[in-house]
Amino acid sequence: MIELKDVTKRFNLKGSAAKKSKIFNAVNQINLTWRRGEFISVVGESGCGKSTLAKVIAGLTDASEGAISLDREPVHLRSQKERTKWAKTVQVVPQDPYAALNPVRKIRSSLADAFLYHKLVSRHELSHKMEELLEFVGLNARETLDKYPHQLSGGQRQRLVIARALSVNPDFLIADESVSMMDVSLRVEILDYLKRVSKERNLGLLFITHDFRVARYISITGKIAVMYLGHIVEFGQTDEILRNPMHPYTQSLISAVPLIAGRERRVEEVLPKSFEIGTLDERSIGCPFAARCPFAQADCLEQRPKLDSVTSYHQVACHYATARKMLVNE
Ligand SMILES: Nc1ncnc2c1ncn2[C@@H]1O[C@H](COP(=O)(O)OP(=O)(O)OP(=O)(O)O)[C@@H](O)[C@H]1O
Ligand code: SF4
Ligand SMILES: [Mg+2]
Record's CDD domains (predicted)? Predict the structure, then answer.
């Protein structure tokens, strides 16, 4: 089990002569528990911090504050040795598979690196292991290994980066917008594939997307975390979040999705006041959604709502979520 406790990642946007520099938290005090075998989708608009969160969890960038633990033991990523060990626990399937593969190296050599770097197989076992893994992700090894990345289709490249992530036999896999650039039929194929592989290997799967329909498809028996400007504003079982969203931001996203099959009743239609997502200054103290929220009150600008439990399987960060729900249901 991986646990994040108050994890924050801060960036300093250096300004020019005319513009002041700005410090902001791309990821802000995230608390999350993620178990082996558990599927969690992280949903939110572009720029809300999804990839930054993925990189912090995978140890590809350091958190500015907060702690990560594995099975209740603190995870320290101070040395290369500690990072290499962590990479065997958590792997990321990157957002852009083409950019993640070296264009001048054959697949054989890119894939071999992953195995050899982590000393997972001896040289004489290498070919056999690579073939086995490629077949496992549905690629014909003989046809694939001696090609360059540009000679593969989008779907084949996607499978390849999944294979590369699986080569170290991780316990947890993060897939960052892994199907966003694909057409619908391929998208379903890759999603089914990721689900199957994760189930077979009992992997924890953290699936990052901006599309609730994809989140539902991947983690129907799992959970959804909704992110807004670096914060998790709503979290809970997928079914519950889709049927009963309580945060105005989640409601605005879900009411904008034409039809989510399985949603038993219509959620309240919520239109944000503006469509601009903006950024949040590090010093801001109020609700991150206040500038766009049609229900904002004066205290929303002064007090940041905490992610509180509404039930044992649903948490929301909004001062007025419960009161509004009672009004709507009256
Ligand atoms: N290395 C960096 N330096 C400064 N700012 C950064 C850096 N990386 C990300 N950011 C900023 O942090 C915020 C979150 O970025 P991130 O890439 O995590 O968003 P995202 O939710 O993955 O977006 P998308 O859906 O477009 O992939 C953005 O405002 C982005 O510009
Ligand atoms: S706390 Fe206030 S501003 Fe934030 S989502 Fe709730 S009602 Fe809107
Ligand atoms: Mg991203």
Answer: ABC_NikE_OppD_transporters (cd03257)
CA 296 to ligand 1 center in whole angstroms: 26
Q: Whose CA is nearest to atom 7 of ligand 1?
A: 11
Alpha carbon distance 299, 305 (integer Å): 10
Q: Residue 305 CA: which ligand 2 atom is closest? A: 1
Which helix (H) or strand (E) element contains residue 185?
A: helix 184-200
Residue with CA at minimum distance from ligand 2 atom 1: 318
- Name the pairing type of β-strands 314-316 and 172-176: unpaired
The DSSP result for 193-227, as a single string, is HHHHHHHHTT-EEEEEES-HHHHHHH-TTSEEEEE
Nearest bound ligand to the CA of residue 290: 2
User: Domain-by-domain residue ranges, the chain?
Assistant: 2-89+170-329, 98-169
Residue 67, classed as helix, strand or coil, is strand
Indicate which atom in ligand 1 lies nearest the CA of residue 53: 18
Integer Cα distance of 136 and 197 in angstroms: 9
Architecture of domain 2-89+170-329: 3-Layer(aba) Sandwich (3.40)
Any ligand 1 atom below 6 A from CB of 48? yes
**Residue to mutate, 226, 231, 280, 295, ligand 2, most ligand atoms under 8 Å from C-beta:** 295
pLDDT in tens, 87-134: 999 999 987 888 888 999 999 998 998 888 877 788 888 999 999 889
Q: Write the pLDDT tens digit of every residue in 177-214.
A: 876 666 777 778 888 888 988 999 899 999 999 989 98
Q: Cβ < 6 Å from ligand 2: which residues? A: 248, 287, 289-290, 293, 295-296, 300, 305, 318-320
